[in-house]
Amino acid sequence: MVGRGFLTDGALDLSGIAEILDRPRTWRVIGVTVGQSLTATAVSLLLGVPGAYVLYRCRFRGRRLLRGFITVPFVLPTVVVGVAFRALLVETGPLGSLGLDGTFAAVVAALVFFNYALVVRTVGSLWERLDPRAEEAARALGASPWRAFRTVTLPALAPAVVSAGAVVFLFCATSFGVVLTMGGMRYGTIETEVWIQTTQFLDLRAAAVLSVLQLVVVGSALLLAGRARRRYDRSLRLRTDRSAARPLRLRGPGLRPGPDLPAAAVTAATVLGLLVTPLAYLLVGSLHAPEGWGLGNYRRLATTGGSNTLTVTVWEAAANSLRAAVDATLLAVVVGTLVAVVVSRRPRSAGGRRALGVLDAVFMLPLGVSAVTVGFGFLITLDSPPLDLRGSPLIVPVAQAVVAVPIVVRTVLPVLRAVDPRLREAAAVLGAAPGRVLATVDGPFLARGLGLAVGFAFAVSLGEFGATAFLARPQAPTLPVVIFRLIGRPGAENYGMALAASVVLAVLTATVMMLAERLRGDRMGTW
Description:
By secondary structure, the chain is mainly alpha-helical. It is built from 22 helices and six strands. The longest helix has 35 residues, at 204-238. This is Iron ABC transporter permease.
Protein backbone atom coordinates (compact mmCIF):
# COMPACT_ATOMS: atom_id res chain seq x y z
CA MET A 1 0.00 0.00 0.00
CA VAL A 2 2.87 2.37 0.77
CA GLY A 3 4.39 1.61 -2.61
CA ARG A 4 1.09 2.11 -4.43
CA GLY A 5 0.50 5.45 -2.69
CA PHE A 6 3.98 6.99 -2.70
CA LEU A 7 5.92 5.42 -5.60
CA THR A 8 5.53 6.01 -9.33
CA ASP A 9 7.62 3.85 -11.69
CA GLY A 10 9.83 2.91 -8.76
CA ALA A 11 10.58 6.54 -7.78
CA LEU A 12 9.29 8.47 -4.80
CA ASP A 13 6.34 10.64 -5.82
CA LEU A 14 4.51 12.68 -3.20
CA SER A 15 2.27 14.52 -5.62
CA GLY A 16 -0.53 12.06 -4.94
CA ILE A 17 -0.54 13.02 -1.26
CA ALA A 18 -0.87 16.71 -2.05
CA GLU A 19 -3.61 16.01 -4.58
CA ILE A 20 -5.66 13.91 -2.18
CA LEU A 21 -5.15 16.27 0.76
CA ASP A 22 -6.29 19.19 -1.41
CA ARG A 23 -9.69 17.57 -1.83
CA PRO A 24 -12.38 19.01 0.49
CA ARG A 25 -13.92 15.54 0.59
CA THR A 26 -10.76 14.15 2.21
CA TRP A 27 -10.77 16.68 5.06
CA ARG A 28 -14.49 16.20 5.57
CA VAL A 29 -13.93 12.45 5.91
CA ILE A 30 -11.02 12.98 8.33
CA GLY A 31 -13.09 15.40 10.40
CA VAL A 32 -16.03 12.99 10.59
CA THR A 33 -13.72 10.10 11.55
CA VAL A 34 -12.04 12.01 14.38
CA GLY A 35 -15.29 13.67 15.53
CA GLN A 36 -17.28 10.43 15.67
CA SER A 37 -14.45 8.56 17.37
CA LEU A 38 -13.82 11.22 20.04
CA THR A 39 -17.54 11.64 20.78
CA ALA A 40 -18.16 7.89 21.03
CA THR A 41 -15.07 7.47 23.21
CA ALA A 42 -16.19 10.21 25.61
CA VAL A 43 -19.71 8.79 25.89
CA SER A 44 -18.37 5.24 26.37
CA LEU A 45 -16.18 6.41 29.25
CA LEU A 46 -18.96 8.45 30.88
CA LEU A 47 -21.31 5.46 30.82
CA GLY A 48 -18.70 2.75 31.33
CA VAL A 49 -17.06 4.02 34.54
CA PRO A 50 -20.32 3.81 36.57
CA GLY A 51 -20.88 0.36 35.07
CA ALA A 52 -17.39 -0.72 36.16
CA TYR A 53 -18.17 0.41 39.70
CA VAL A 54 -21.47 -1.46 39.89
CA LEU A 55 -20.27 -4.70 38.25
CA TYR A 56 -16.83 -4.94 39.85
CA ARG A 57 -16.95 -2.99 43.10
CA CYS A 58 -20.42 -4.00 44.31
CA ARG A 59 -21.94 -7.41 44.95
CA PHE A 60 -25.50 -8.39 44.04
CA ARG A 61 -27.42 -11.36 42.71
CA GLY A 62 -26.94 -11.95 38.97
CA ARG A 63 -23.70 -9.96 38.74
CA ARG A 64 -21.78 -12.70 36.89
CA LEU A 65 -24.61 -13.17 34.39
CA LEU A 66 -24.77 -9.42 33.74
CA ARG A 67 -21.02 -9.29 33.22
CA GLY A 68 -21.30 -12.00 30.58
CA PHE A 69 -24.24 -10.30 28.85
CA ILE A 70 -22.53 -6.94 28.38
CA THR A 71 -19.66 -8.75 26.63
CA VAL A 72 -21.91 -10.09 23.87
CA PRO A 73 -22.35 -6.73 22.02
CA PHE A 74 -18.57 -6.31 21.82
CA VAL A 75 -18.17 -9.45 19.71
CA LEU A 76 -21.31 -9.09 17.60
CA PRO A 77 -20.66 -8.55 13.89
CA THR A 78 -20.80 -4.88 12.93
CA VAL A 79 -23.41 -5.53 10.27
CA VAL A 80 -25.75 -7.05 12.87
CA VAL A 81 -25.43 -3.98 15.08
CA GLY A 82 -26.05 -1.66 12.15
CA VAL A 83 -29.19 -3.58 11.18
CA ALA A 84 -30.42 -3.64 14.80
CA PHE A 85 -30.14 0.13 15.19
CA ARG A 86 -31.62 0.80 11.77
CA ALA A 87 -34.62 -1.38 12.63
CA LEU A 88 -35.10 0.67 15.79
CA LEU A 89 -34.67 4.12 14.22
CA VAL A 90 -36.31 3.86 10.78
CA GLU A 91 -39.59 5.71 10.28
CA THR A 92 -41.61 2.54 10.89
CA GLY A 93 -39.61 1.63 14.00
CA PRO A 94 -40.56 2.45 17.60
CA LEU A 95 -38.11 5.39 17.70
CA GLY A 96 -38.72 6.55 14.14
CA SER A 97 -40.45 9.73 15.33
CA LEU A 98 -37.13 10.97 16.73
CA GLY A 99 -35.71 11.32 13.21
CA LEU A 100 -32.37 9.80 14.19
CA ASP A 101 -32.00 7.32 11.33
CA GLY A 102 -28.80 8.01 9.41
CA THR A 103 -27.66 10.77 11.79
CA PHE A 104 -24.41 11.46 13.63
CA ALA A 105 -26.08 10.60 16.96
CA ALA A 106 -27.24 7.21 15.66
CA VAL A 107 -23.73 6.26 14.54
CA VAL A 108 -22.27 7.35 17.89
CA ALA A 109 -24.91 5.34 19.80
CA ALA A 110 -24.03 2.21 17.81
CA LEU A 111 -20.32 2.73 18.46
CA VAL A 112 -21.00 3.11 22.20
CA PHE A 113 -23.08 -0.07 22.05
CA PHE A 114 -19.98 -1.91 20.83
CA ASN A 115 -17.42 -0.45 23.20
CA TYR A 116 -19.31 -0.14 26.49
CA ALA A 117 -18.16 -3.60 27.61
CA LEU A 118 -14.53 -2.79 26.83
CA VAL A 119 -14.58 0.21 29.18
CA VAL A 120 -16.47 -1.65 31.91
CA ARG A 121 -14.15 -4.64 31.94
CA THR A 122 -10.89 -2.73 31.53
CA VAL A 123 -11.65 -0.19 34.26
CA GLY A 124 -13.49 -2.72 36.43
CA SER A 125 -10.60 -5.19 36.48
CA LEU A 126 -8.37 -2.53 38.05
CA TRP A 127 -11.07 -1.07 40.31
CA GLU A 128 -11.73 -4.54 41.70
CA ARG A 129 -8.14 -4.66 42.97
CA LEU A 130 -7.88 -1.17 44.43
CA ASP A 131 -7.40 -0.95 48.18
CA PRO A 132 -10.56 0.80 49.48
CA ARG A 133 -8.83 2.12 52.60
CA ALA A 134 -7.44 5.22 50.86
CA GLU A 135 -10.93 6.37 49.85
CA GLU A 136 -12.29 5.46 53.28
CA ALA A 137 -9.57 7.56 54.91
CA ALA A 138 -10.54 10.55 52.75
CA ARG A 139 -14.18 10.12 53.75
CA ALA A 140 -13.19 9.89 57.43
CA LEU A 141 -11.33 13.20 57.06
CA GLY A 142 -14.52 14.89 55.87
CA ALA A 143 -14.42 14.54 52.08
CA SER A 144 -17.75 14.07 50.32
CA PRO A 145 -18.24 10.89 48.27
CA TRP A 146 -17.75 12.84 45.03
CA ARG A 147 -14.59 14.57 46.28
CA ALA A 148 -13.13 11.29 47.55
CA PHE A 149 -13.78 9.68 44.17
CA ARG A 150 -12.37 12.65 42.23
CA THR A 151 -9.21 13.12 44.30
CA VAL A 152 -8.38 9.56 45.41
CA THR A 153 -10.05 6.85 43.32
CA LEU A 154 -10.06 8.47 39.87
CA PRO A 155 -6.29 9.17 39.80
CA ALA A 156 -5.68 5.52 40.75
CA LEU A 157 -7.97 4.44 37.90
CA ALA A 158 -6.41 6.83 35.37
CA PRO A 159 -4.15 4.21 33.69
CA ALA A 160 -7.12 1.94 33.01
CA VAL A 161 -9.35 4.82 31.89
CA VAL A 162 -6.73 6.15 29.47
CA SER A 163 -5.98 2.65 28.17
CA ALA A 164 -9.66 1.91 27.61
CA GLY A 165 -10.26 5.30 25.98
CA ALA A 166 -7.38 4.85 23.54
CA VAL A 167 -8.50 1.39 22.48
CA VAL A 168 -12.13 2.53 22.15
CA PHE A 169 -10.95 5.38 19.91
CA LEU A 170 -9.07 2.82 17.84
CA PHE A 171 -12.12 0.61 17.39
CA CYS A 172 -14.35 3.60 16.59
CA ALA A 173 -11.92 4.97 14.01
CA THR A 174 -11.77 1.60 12.26
CA SER A 175 -15.46 0.66 12.46
CA PHE A 176 -16.58 -0.16 8.93
CA GLY A 177 -19.86 -2.06 9.06
CA VAL A 178 -21.61 0.27 11.53
CA VAL A 179 -20.71 3.43 9.62
CA LEU A 180 -21.53 1.95 6.22
CA THR A 181 -24.95 0.62 7.26
CA MET A 182 -25.98 3.57 9.45
CA GLY A 183 -24.12 6.68 8.28
CA GLY A 184 -23.84 5.94 4.57
CA MET A 185 -22.09 8.59 2.48
CA ARG A 186 -23.15 11.48 4.71
CA TYR A 187 -21.12 10.34 7.70
CA GLY A 188 -18.50 8.33 5.88
CA THR A 189 -15.13 7.81 7.57
CA ILE A 190 -11.64 7.06 6.28
CA GLU A 191 -12.64 3.41 6.53
CA THR A 192 -15.63 3.68 4.22
CA GLU A 193 -13.81 6.11 1.92
CA VAL A 194 -11.10 3.50 1.23
CA TRP A 195 -13.83 1.04 0.26
CA ILE A 196 -15.59 3.61 -1.96
CA GLN A 197 -12.40 4.75 -3.71
CA THR A 198 -11.53 1.11 -4.45
CA THR A 199 -14.85 -0.43 -5.40
CA GLN A 200 -16.66 2.53 -6.99
CA PHE A 201 -14.04 5.01 -8.23
CA LEU A 202 -11.25 2.42 -8.86
CA ASP A 203 -8.77 4.99 -7.50
CA LEU A 204 -6.29 2.64 -5.83
CA ARG A 205 -3.74 5.37 -5.23
CA ALA A 206 -6.19 7.48 -3.26
CA ALA A 207 -7.25 4.41 -1.31
CA ALA A 208 -3.60 3.61 -0.51
CA VAL A 209 -2.86 7.15 0.70
CA LEU A 210 -5.98 7.14 2.88
CA SER A 211 -5.05 3.73 4.31
CA VAL A 212 -1.61 4.99 5.31
CA LEU A 213 -3.19 8.14 6.75
CA GLN A 214 -5.53 6.00 8.80
CA LEU A 215 -2.56 3.96 10.02
CA VAL A 216 -1.01 7.18 11.34
CA VAL A 217 -4.21 8.11 13.20
CA VAL A 218 -4.82 4.72 14.81
CA GLY A 219 -1.10 4.16 15.35
CA SER A 220 -1.05 7.24 17.56
CA ALA A 221 -3.97 5.83 19.52
CA LEU A 222 -2.18 2.47 19.87
CA LEU A 223 0.97 4.21 21.12
CA LEU A 224 -1.05 5.98 23.79
CA ALA A 225 -2.83 2.72 24.66
CA GLY A 226 0.47 0.88 24.95
CA ARG A 227 1.95 3.42 27.33
CA ALA A 228 -1.20 3.48 29.45
CA ARG A 229 -1.38 -0.30 29.36
CA ARG A 230 2.12 -0.61 30.80
CA ARG A 231 1.11 1.64 33.68
CA TYR A 232 -2.08 -0.38 34.03
CA ASP A 233 -0.15 -3.66 34.23
CA ARG A 234 2.19 -2.23 36.84
CA SER A 235 -0.80 -1.11 38.90
CA LEU A 236 -2.28 -4.60 38.72
CA ARG A 237 0.94 -6.26 39.76
CA LEU A 238 1.12 -4.09 42.84
CA ARG A 239 -2.08 -5.69 44.13
CA THR A 240 -2.27 -9.43 43.61
CA ASP A 241 -5.31 -9.88 45.85
CA ARG A 242 -8.80 -8.77 44.97
CA SER A 243 -10.58 -6.47 47.39
CA ALA A 244 -13.84 -7.97 48.55
CA ALA A 245 -16.83 -6.40 46.83
CA ARG A 246 -19.38 -4.93 49.18
CA PRO A 247 -23.17 -5.29 48.83
CA LEU A 248 -24.89 -2.86 46.47
CA ARG A 249 -26.51 -0.12 48.59
CA LEU A 250 -29.46 1.54 46.89
CA ARG A 251 -31.06 2.84 50.10
CA GLY A 252 -29.58 4.75 52.99
CA PRO A 253 -30.87 5.28 56.53
CA GLY A 254 -34.47 6.38 56.71
CA LEU A 255 -35.26 5.22 53.16
CA ARG A 256 -33.00 7.89 51.72
CA PRO A 257 -31.23 7.22 48.40
CA GLY A 258 -28.18 5.05 48.94
CA PRO A 259 -24.66 6.00 47.80
CA ASP A 260 -24.74 3.49 44.92
CA LEU A 261 -28.07 4.60 43.50
CA PRO A 262 -26.74 7.08 40.85
CA ALA A 263 -24.22 4.58 39.45
CA ALA A 264 -26.80 1.78 39.51
CA ALA A 265 -29.36 3.99 37.74
CA VAL A 266 -26.91 4.95 34.99
CA THR A 267 -25.87 1.31 34.54
CA ALA A 268 -29.47 0.05 34.43
CA ALA A 269 -30.49 2.73 31.91
CA THR A 270 -27.47 1.95 29.71
CA VAL A 271 -27.94 -1.82 29.77
CA LEU A 272 -31.69 -1.69 29.18
CA GLY A 273 -31.85 1.28 26.84
CA LEU A 274 -28.66 0.91 24.83
CA LEU A 275 -27.86 -2.80 24.90
CA VAL A 276 -31.11 -4.72 25.37
CA THR A 277 -33.51 -2.57 23.32
CA PRO A 278 -31.79 -2.81 19.88
CA LEU A 279 -31.23 -6.56 20.20
CA ALA A 280 -34.76 -7.19 21.45
CA TYR A 281 -36.32 -5.18 18.64
CA LEU A 282 -34.09 -6.94 16.11
CA LEU A 283 -35.58 -10.24 17.28
CA VAL A 284 -39.14 -8.86 17.29
CA GLY A 285 -38.68 -7.31 13.85
CA SER A 286 -37.42 -10.58 12.42
CA LEU A 287 -40.74 -12.20 13.41
CA HIS A 288 -42.80 -9.58 11.55
CA ALA A 289 -43.04 -10.80 7.95
CA PRO A 290 -44.94 -9.03 5.13
CA GLU A 291 -47.78 -11.54 5.53
CA GLY A 292 -47.96 -11.06 9.31
CA TRP A 293 -46.33 -12.32 12.49
CA GLY A 294 -44.54 -15.63 12.28
CA LEU A 295 -41.45 -17.31 10.91
CA GLY A 296 -41.94 -16.17 7.32
CA ASN A 297 -38.69 -14.22 7.24
CA TYR A 298 -36.79 -17.25 8.48
CA ARG A 299 -38.41 -19.51 5.86
CA ARG A 300 -37.25 -17.06 3.18
CA LEU A 301 -33.66 -17.59 4.25
CA ALA A 302 -33.77 -20.66 2.01
CA THR A 303 -34.39 -18.36 -1.01
CA THR A 304 -32.31 -15.72 -2.79
CA GLY A 305 -34.58 -12.87 -1.71
CA GLY A 306 -37.02 -10.69 -3.58
CA SER A 307 -36.18 -10.22 -7.30
CA ASN A 308 -33.29 -12.67 -6.80
CA THR A 309 -31.27 -10.11 -4.84
CA LEU A 310 -28.70 -12.72 -3.83
CA THR A 311 -26.62 -15.19 -5.81
CA VAL A 312 -26.96 -17.83 -3.08
CA THR A 313 -29.43 -18.48 -0.27
CA VAL A 314 -28.77 -17.13 3.21
CA TRP A 315 -28.23 -20.64 4.57
CA GLU A 316 -25.59 -21.26 1.90
CA ALA A 317 -23.92 -17.99 2.87
CA ALA A 318 -24.02 -19.10 6.52
CA ALA A 319 -22.30 -22.34 5.53
CA ASN A 320 -19.66 -20.31 3.68
CA SER A 321 -19.12 -18.21 6.81
CA LEU A 322 -18.77 -21.26 9.03
CA ARG A 323 -16.28 -22.94 6.70
CA ALA A 324 -14.19 -19.79 6.39
CA ALA A 325 -14.34 -19.20 10.17
CA VAL A 326 -13.16 -22.74 10.92
CA ASP A 327 -10.22 -22.40 8.52
CA ALA A 328 -9.37 -18.90 9.78
CA THR A 329 -9.57 -20.02 13.41
CA LEU A 330 -7.23 -22.94 12.78
CA LEU A 331 -4.69 -20.66 11.08
CA ALA A 332 -5.00 -17.90 13.68
CA VAL A 333 -4.71 -20.22 16.69
CA VAL A 334 -1.66 -22.06 15.31
CA VAL A 335 0.19 -18.88 14.29
CA GLY A 336 -0.94 -16.86 17.30
CA THR A 337 0.02 -19.57 19.80
CA LEU A 338 3.48 -19.98 18.28
CA VAL A 339 4.02 -16.21 18.40
CA ALA A 340 2.79 -16.04 21.99
CA VAL A 341 5.14 -18.86 23.03
CA VAL A 342 8.13 -17.02 21.55
CA VAL A 343 7.17 -13.55 22.82
CA SER A 344 6.47 -14.86 26.34
CA ARG A 345 10.15 -15.78 26.81
CA ARG A 346 12.37 -13.46 28.83
CA PRO A 347 15.83 -13.19 27.22
CA ARG A 348 18.63 -11.91 29.43
CA SER A 349 20.15 -9.71 26.72
CA ALA A 350 18.71 -6.31 25.83
CA GLY A 351 19.00 -7.15 22.14
CA GLY A 352 16.93 -10.28 22.59
CA ARG A 353 14.23 -8.36 24.42
CA ARG A 354 14.15 -5.71 21.70
CA ALA A 355 13.88 -8.40 19.00
CA LEU A 356 10.90 -9.99 20.76
CA GLY A 357 9.33 -6.55 21.11
CA VAL A 358 9.65 -5.99 17.36
CA LEU A 359 8.17 -9.44 16.65
CA ASP A 360 5.25 -8.70 18.96
CA ALA A 361 4.64 -5.34 17.25
CA VAL A 362 4.71 -6.90 13.77
CA PHE A 363 2.00 -9.40 14.64
CA MET A 364 -0.02 -6.70 16.43
CA LEU A 365 -0.03 -4.54 13.28
CA PRO A 366 -3.41 -5.86 12.00
CA LEU A 367 -4.91 -4.61 15.27
CA GLY A 368 -3.54 -1.15 14.51
CA VAL A 369 -5.03 -0.98 11.03
CA SER A 370 -8.56 -1.64 9.93
CA ALA A 371 -9.87 -4.84 8.42
CA VAL A 372 -10.71 -2.81 5.32
CA THR A 373 -7.03 -1.88 5.00
CA VAL A 374 -6.06 -5.54 5.41
CA GLY A 375 -8.52 -6.55 2.69
CA PHE A 376 -7.34 -3.78 0.40
CA GLY A 377 -3.73 -4.83 0.96
CA PHE A 378 -4.58 -8.42 0.03
CA LEU A 379 -6.44 -7.21 -3.06
CA ILE A 380 -3.52 -5.25 -4.52
CA THR A 381 -0.77 -7.64 -3.38
CA LEU A 382 -1.96 -11.20 -4.03
CA ASP A 383 -2.88 -10.46 -7.64
CA SER A 384 -0.10 -12.11 -9.63
CA PRO A 385 1.51 -15.58 -9.81
CA PRO A 386 2.68 -17.44 -7.83
CA LEU A 387 0.47 -15.77 -5.19
CA ASP A 388 -2.60 -14.88 -7.21
CA LEU A 389 -5.30 -15.76 -4.69
CA ARG A 390 -8.02 -13.37 -5.90
CA GLY A 391 -10.09 -16.22 -7.30
CA SER A 392 -9.18 -18.71 -4.59
CA PRO A 393 -11.51 -19.56 -1.70
CA LEU A 394 -8.45 -19.46 0.59
CA ILE A 395 -8.07 -15.69 0.42
CA VAL A 396 -11.03 -15.00 2.73
CA PRO A 397 -10.00 -17.30 5.64
CA VAL A 398 -6.36 -16.17 5.31
CA ALA A 399 -7.39 -12.50 5.58
CA GLN A 400 -9.72 -13.29 8.48
CA ALA A 401 -6.87 -15.15 10.20
CA VAL A 402 -4.62 -12.11 9.84
CA VAL A 403 -7.29 -10.03 11.62
CA ALA A 404 -7.73 -12.67 14.36
CA VAL A 405 -4.04 -13.44 15.08
CA PRO A 406 -3.48 -10.36 17.31
CA ILE A 407 -6.49 -11.32 19.43
CA VAL A 408 -5.19 -14.88 19.86
CA VAL A 409 -1.76 -13.57 20.86
CA ARG A 410 -3.22 -11.12 23.37
CA THR A 411 -5.44 -13.84 24.85
CA VAL A 412 -2.75 -16.51 25.22
CA LEU A 413 0.22 -14.29 26.10
CA PRO A 414 -0.88 -13.31 29.67
CA VAL A 415 -1.33 -17.00 30.50
CA LEU A 416 2.16 -17.94 29.30
CA ARG A 417 3.72 -14.95 31.04
CA ALA A 418 2.20 -16.15 34.29
CA VAL A 419 4.40 -19.27 34.15
CA ASP A 420 7.36 -18.96 36.52
CA PRO A 421 10.50 -19.34 34.33
CA ARG A 422 12.15 -21.27 37.15
CA LEU A 423 9.78 -24.16 36.40
CA ARG A 424 11.16 -24.39 32.86
CA GLU A 425 14.72 -24.14 34.15
CA ALA A 426 14.13 -26.89 36.72
CA ALA A 427 12.63 -29.20 34.08
CA ALA A 428 15.58 -28.55 31.76
CA VAL A 429 18.09 -29.24 34.57
CA LEU A 430 16.33 -32.56 35.24
CA GLY A 431 16.95 -33.57 31.63
CA ALA A 432 13.72 -32.62 29.83
CA ALA A 433 14.13 -31.69 26.17
CA PRO A 434 12.76 -28.30 25.02
CA GLY A 435 9.70 -29.96 23.47
CA ARG A 436 8.94 -31.82 26.66
CA VAL A 437 9.38 -28.64 28.73
CA LEU A 438 6.87 -26.90 26.47
CA ALA A 439 4.40 -29.80 26.73
CA THR A 440 4.65 -30.47 30.47
CA VAL A 441 5.31 -27.00 31.92
CA ASP A 442 3.68 -24.55 29.50
CA GLY A 443 1.09 -27.02 28.18
CA PRO A 444 -1.35 -27.01 31.14
CA PHE A 445 -1.28 -23.19 31.29
CA LEU A 446 -1.59 -22.94 27.51
CA ALA A 447 -4.64 -25.22 27.49
CA ARG A 448 -6.31 -22.84 29.94
CA GLY A 449 -6.08 -19.95 27.49
CA LEU A 450 -6.68 -21.75 24.21
CA GLY A 451 -10.41 -22.21 24.77
CA LEU A 452 -11.01 -18.48 25.00
CA ALA A 453 -8.57 -17.83 22.15
CA VAL A 454 -10.46 -20.25 19.89
CA GLY A 455 -13.76 -18.59 20.85
CA PHE A 456 -12.54 -15.08 20.10
CA ALA A 457 -10.88 -16.10 16.84
CA PHE A 458 -13.98 -17.96 15.64
CA ALA A 459 -16.36 -15.13 16.62
CA VAL A 460 -14.18 -12.47 14.96
CA SER A 461 -13.82 -14.53 11.78
CA LEU A 462 -17.51 -15.41 11.65
CA GLY A 463 -18.64 -11.78 11.75
CA GLU A 464 -15.72 -10.19 9.89
CA PHE A 465 -16.99 -7.79 7.23
CA GLY A 466 -14.33 -5.20 6.37
CA ALA A 467 -11.76 -7.43 4.66
CA THR A 468 -14.37 -9.91 3.44
CA ALA A 469 -16.28 -7.14 1.64
CA PHE A 470 -13.25 -6.75 -0.64
CA LEU A 471 -12.34 -10.39 -1.05
CA ALA A 472 -15.48 -12.58 -1.00
CA ARG A 473 -16.31 -14.02 -4.40
CA PRO A 474 -19.79 -13.17 -5.76
CA GLN A 475 -20.69 -16.86 -5.95
CA ALA A 476 -19.49 -17.55 -2.38
CA PRO A 477 -20.46 -14.58 -0.15
CA THR A 478 -20.36 -14.81 3.62
CA LEU A 479 -23.30 -14.11 5.91
CA PRO A 480 -22.27 -10.49 6.80
CA VAL A 481 -21.86 -9.67 3.09
CA VAL A 482 -25.30 -11.14 2.32
CA ILE A 483 -26.92 -9.12 5.14
CA PHE A 484 -25.41 -5.92 3.77
CA ARG A 485 -26.72 -6.71 0.29
CA LEU A 486 -30.20 -7.37 1.62
CA ILE A 487 -30.51 -4.09 3.52
CA GLY A 488 -29.23 -2.23 0.46
CA ARG A 489 -32.07 -3.47 -1.76
CA PRO A 490 -35.68 -2.22 -1.61
CA GLY A 491 -38.56 -4.44 -0.58
CA ALA A 492 -40.12 -5.65 2.65
CA GLU A 493 -39.07 -9.22 1.92
CA ASN A 494 -35.39 -8.30 1.64
CA TYR A 495 -35.52 -6.18 4.78
CA GLY A 496 -37.24 -8.94 6.76
CA MET A 497 -34.68 -11.47 5.55
CA ALA A 498 -31.88 -9.10 6.64
CA LEU A 499 -33.36 -8.96 10.15
CA ALA A 500 -33.73 -12.75 10.34
CA ALA A 501 -30.23 -13.35 8.98
CA SER A 502 -28.85 -10.86 11.52
CA VAL A 503 -30.53 -12.78 14.33
CA VAL A 504 -29.00 -16.03 13.06
CA LEU A 505 -25.53 -14.46 12.93
CA ALA A 506 -25.95 -12.86 16.36
CA VAL A 507 -27.05 -16.16 17.92
CA LEU A 508 -24.11 -18.02 16.39
CA THR A 509 -21.63 -15.41 17.63
CA ALA A 510 -23.17 -15.10 21.08
CA THR A 511 -23.24 -18.88 21.52
CA VAL A 512 -19.56 -19.18 20.65
CA MET A 513 -18.61 -16.39 23.05
CA MET A 514 -20.75 -17.70 25.91
CA LEU A 515 -19.02 -21.08 25.59
CA ALA A 516 -15.63 -19.36 25.47
CA GLU A 517 -16.49 -17.21 28.50
CA ARG A 518 -17.11 -20.35 30.55
CA LEU A 519 -13.54 -21.40 29.81
CA ARG A 520 -12.13 -18.11 31.06
CA GLY A 521 -9.97 -18.59 34.15
CA ASP A 522 -8.76 -16.17 36.80
CA ARG A 523 -5.40 -15.93 35.01
CA MET A 524 -6.93 -14.61 31.80
CA GLY A 525 -6.33 -10.94 32.64
CA THR A 526 -8.86 -8.33 31.62
CA TRP A 527 -10.48 -10.60 29.01
